[in-house]
Amino acid sequence: MHAQKHNLLVFADGGFDRLALRRADDNWLEAQLSDAATRFVPVAGEDSLLSADGEPLILGAHKAEALRASAQATVLLGEYRGQVCFALGLAPDAPLPAGTVRSNLRPQFGVLEDDALALLGYARAMVHWHAHNRYCGKCGAPTQSRRAGHELHCTRCGNTLYPRVNPAVIMLVTHGERCLLGRQPEWAANRFSTLAGFVEPGENLEAALRREIREETNIRVGRAHYLRSQPWPYPASLMLGFRAEAESTEIRCNDGELAEARWFSRADIAAGLRDGSLALSLPGSSSHALIREWFEEAPGFVLSVTANTR
Ligand SMILES: [Zn+2]
After folding, report:
1. Considering the domain boundaries, does residue 303 fall inside one?
2. The predicted structure's pLDDT at residue 180
3. 20 to 30 A Cα–Cα from 167, which one of 57, 64, 99, 122?
4. Average of per-residue pLDDT across 127-145
5. Which residues pair with 181 in a beta bridge?
6. What pLDDT, on a 0 to 100 scale, did the predictor assign at position 307?
7. How far is the CA of 147 from the centre of ligand 1 (A)?
8. Are residues 138 and 232 in the same domain?
9. Helix residue ranges, H only, the chain
10. Rounded distance from Cα 160 to ligand 1 centre (Å)
């Protein structure tokens, strides 16, 4: 659809100003909310929204009026393409403008522009946080939005909640010229991905990585190094990407999280993608980026980014 170059990772950097210093400025916020130039990004339940022509649904103040009245959350997102934008958290069954398309955004990877995807990802994460924190976890009283939707404050005990991000490690484990990929039980029989798992309390990233790999495949890893991170709004993860070197090779899927794990050479991956016996995660995901980067380190290997998009 667009000719522009896409980032290695979607959602990673929208390049827009979040206007964080304005969040506590009530006069400024009030002025923005009554300004006809302000834009609104509705999210219905867990669904991001696109217009009938496939663009992000970003509404002007007038068109957003009815939705604003019924919104369960209003959150300042920042300045996007020169306009101040707020997310609107709507009920899953809220009436939407004619032609609106609901999306989990995955089919939009590599289709929508990077800043648009980052904005929509940010909006869905903030709206999800609001929808799941309507009551105080400490005393059960309703919470109230503050600081332009970036804090929730308990109306009884004063407890303050902040938007939460769940760190997860995602890693490409290599051994010599092969890499380790796994398949979750609910996935299609040909789909394989890098290993990943959430960081637990009391654990640093290195320990989480070693534990996850050991639990899921029984492989011991030695050296590991961090590469890059990606916000992943399904619903609120931060994927921390690593490369790790295996010190053992015998696979045993221990914990039931994986149906299967296998060592793949570059030639195995190339052949599998060619004949359809292998599908990787979508381009734009951390998993795809980790595999592609390793794959293309060997001369003559170029991972087709379109062969597995579906
Ligand atoms: Zn409370």
Report:
1. no
2. 98
3. 57
4. 97
5. 262
6. 40
7. 18
8. no
9. 26-33, 65-70, 114-131, 205-217, 266-275, 286-295
10. 8
